[in-house]
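Tutorial handout. Part one gives the primary structure; part two gives the three-dimensional structure as tokens.
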Amino acid sequence: MRFVRNTPSILLAGIVLVLGCGGVLGARLAKAGADQAELPSRPTAEMRRARAAVPGPLRPVQALPSWLRRAGPGPLAVSYTQGIPDFGAIRDVQRKKVSFFSYLLPVIERENRRLVELRKRLGYVRDHLRWNHPLDADDRLWLTDVCQEFRLKELEPAADGFWETLLCRVDVLPVDLVLVQAANESAWGTSRFAREGNNFFGQWCFSRDCGMVPAARPDGATYEVARFSSVDESVGSYMRNLNAGYSYADLRRIRAEQRARGLEPDATTMAAGLLSYSERRQAYVDDIRAMLRHNSGAIEEARSRVSLASAGS
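Part two.
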């Protein structure tokens, strides 16, 4: 069964398209941040899987050995725990877009760097086992942590398909795809759930007081919109959802096929795997692809700004 995105939903879809094509904000954007416009009458198991907020691993994934560490560009000198900028106060549309992308870009790149390092060490562990060398206790614990984080129930490295499945899940997501989904789901950072709960991707939770109760939640429904302590936590949960969630197996398959052809994961192609992210299905995918086309210039400008800021820090 299909499900409805929760922030800011069907009303916001038209607003996002206007922003994506460079139109004016108008009165509708002012409404977008207030709350969602429409919610499913009864969330199904499929909806819960697709929108579930994914907690981090029970233990922090152990640090890489020194020979696997790689220096990378540092983040912008911005606090991601002291409240998000007031994007709604930026009246110029292009400046709003660039500011929004510049704010989220370092967080997404940081999570992608973590995934790259995880893949490196997984390759080392896999090759170690292929040479019939036993894993030491630290490596076994580390591998168990990774399997738990990416929801791999079969924890036996010798099992058929173990490494293929795990490496299919532990992989980067195209930065552009994450950026435009965040813009779409959070009304460019102005939604109530982004402002009050650092939730840029409309993720749900299902225990009492776990998040924010939507104003338009139907009687009898119990889900809430997840609240995160930081933007990093929100981005990490969203990326774990796409990388390990049942609903996004097609997205991972598309990415693995691109890898097999020697290609880097492509945002426009991988967007086809987001059918389950919205009740609108293909129309939602088309919106995301349109946003990718129309916001490419703003994303590149944001990259330049972040790069300059990192170089000067």
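Part three, for discussion. The domain at 9-312 is CATH 1.10.530.10 (Lysozyme). Residues 1-41, 62-81 have pLDDT under 50 and may be disordered.
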